[in-house]
UniProtKB/TrEMBL annotation:
InterPro entries: MFS (IPR011701), MFS_dom (IPR020846), MFS_trans_sf (IPR036259), Sugar_transporter_CS (IPR005829). This is MFS transporter. SUPFAM superfamilies: MFS general substrate transporter. PANTHER family: CONSERVED TWO-DOMAIN MEMBRANE PROTEIN-RELATED, MAJOR FACILITATOR SUPERFAMILY MULTIDRUG TRANSPORTER MFSC. Its main location: membrane. Residues 19-457 form the Major facilitator superfamily (MFS) profile domain. The chain crosses the membrane at residues 54-73, 85-111, 117-135, 147-169, 175-195, 207-225, 231-251, 271-296, 302-321, 333-354, 366-388, 400-424, 430-452.
Length: 462
């Protein structure tokens, strides 16, 4: 029987399938909320008479609070129970979605989006840490993480399409209301399908590190958001971020093994490689998803609905490949799957830059498919590399840190590639410049991760 379980882990473990279904639902609603809100920005602006700066904060307040709260979310999951924190996060996320749907002003909507980010910062690290604990065999965990990571592609595909369907018929408030029943379903299912797990060491809450990390991430994210509109504030935010990082390092050195960011985590070579590659991956990937539709619509090449449809090759290939990323990484090796996948994304961005605004966008569509292939190969194995190379007791913190890398790369990538696009006045030259910048960062991230990883076997500690 044990041999049969090892050969068919998902076929033989119904409870694991239900656990994975709950976790996938949680990560899908967290990610779909971001993509669907981007599509509703114009309708929201028309309703409230909001300017570009308010619309930017409606979209980015989620990212800012999410980034600031991730370390706290991972620590709380380790200390107080991953299932408990996942349920709390889903409840906050659902309640905040109701606030957004009923918002009487742009300011209230910004606050609601910020609360949604706080809920996501509890859900995502907890869900990734639960996978690390429940699937204790590396091969099973890789398959589970491949399916879990594919949910981002599902959200990327569903978000624009769902928004395009709901907004014309039911108005922009419906894009927030549609999240509510699924959030309640996560709360109900988690209590019965997810086993509770907690760090038995019961680490003390590292308040100074939490505050320093929050200031560092918050300032860095704020600088990325305001880089074009407020250069003075951006400079001040970067100074605060640098000082916060320096203070965080000093505080954590004093705490030693009891630190929030313990030396054990960052001494793991594969964990460091996963952080580097993930940052490069999302820098180029999210930046491209922001710039390419903007270029299409600004040039009159495609409208909003056609732009959403034109992005589908990336999402569909990602969804098809991600469930098999664990098997592929077993055959290719984690090092090749992760660095190779991010490299493929860089190649895809170059194709998009060269062909995105041609009369025939076939080259850009092929580039989007290549980008989706690289993302599908790399996303799941990168998460497996990050949480699999640290002790299970630190799974929540490791999950939070890999998501810090993801959201930091995404936020800075959107700001940087958007600035590259605007610097040349947009058009084909702006698109090409921004895609070259994104691909160079991805090539660099893949190369550094390849060198950092080395050839040693994974160090899976329990």
């Amino acid at each position: 029987m044990d041999d049969m379980l090892r050969r068919k882990p998902f076929a033989m473990r119904a409870s694991h399938r239900l656990t994975l279904l709950t976790l996938c639902l949680a990560v899908t609603i967290a990610h779909i909320d971001t993509f669907i809100v981007n599509l509703g920005a114009r309708a929201i602006g028309d309703h409230f008479g909001a300017g570009v700066d308010e619309l930017q904060w409606i979209v980015d307040s989620y990212n800012l609070v999410y980034a600031v709260s991730l370390l706290t979310g991972g620590m709380l999951a380790d200390r107080y129970g991953r299932r408990r924190i996942l349920i709390c996060g889903a409840a906050i996320f659902t309640g905040a979605s109701l606030v957004c749907a009923a918002a009487p002003s742009a300011l209230v909507l910004i606050v609601g989006r910020a609360l949604t980010g706080a809920g996501g910062a509890l859900m995502i690290p907890a869900s990734l840490a639960i996978i690390r604990v429940v699937w204790d065999r590396p091969d099973e965990r890789a398959r589970a993480l491949g399916i879990w990571a594919a949910c981002n592609g599902v959200a990327m595909a569903l978000g624009p399409s769902l928004g395009g369907l709901l907004i014309p018929w039911l108005g922009w408030r419906s894009i927030f209301l549609v999240i509510v029943p699924f959030g309640l379903l996560v709360v109900l299912m988690a209590g019965s399908t997810i086993p509770e797990s907690v760090n038995p060491q019961r680490r003390a809450v590292d308040i100074p590190a939490q505050l320093c990390g929050a200031f560092a991430l918050g300032s860095l994210t704020y600088a990325a958001i305001c880089a074009q509109l407020a250069p003075g504030a951006t400079t001040a935010a970067l100074v605060i971020a640098s000082l916060s990082v320096a203070l965080l390092i000093a505080v954590e050195r004093r705490r030693g093994a009891g630190a929030l960011l313990s030396p054990e985590i960052f001494s793991a070579r594969r964990f460091r490689a996963a952080m580097i590659a993930t940052t490069g991956m999302t820098f180029g990937g999210y930046g491209m998803v922001f710039v390419l539709p903007l270029a299409w619509q600004s040039s009159g090449r495609l409208d909003a609905a056609a732009s959403a449809a034109a992005l589908l090759p990336m999402s569909l290939v990602f969804v098809l490949i991600s469930p098999f990323s664990g098997m592929l990484s077993d055959k290719l090796g984690l090092r090749a799957a992760t660095s190779g996948g991010v490299t493929l994304m860089g190649v895809g961005l170059l194709m998009i830059g060269l062909g995105g605004l041609r009369p025939d966008i076939a080259l850009a569509e092929f580039g989007l498919a290549i980008t989706g292939l690289g993302l599908g190969l790399a996303a799941g194995p990168l998460s497996a590399m990050a949480v699999g190379d640290v002790a299970a007791a630190r799974a929540g913190t490791a999950a939070a840190l890999i998501n810090v890398a993801r959201i930091s790369g995404a936020t800075i990538g959107v700001a940087a590639l958007g600035a590259c696009y605007a610097a040349t006045g947009g058009g084909s030259h702006g698109l090409l410049l921004s895609m070259i910048a994104g691909s160079l960062v991805q090539f660099a991230g893949a190369g550094v991760a390849w060198m950092v990883t080395g050839h040693e076997a994974p160090r899976l500690r329990i």
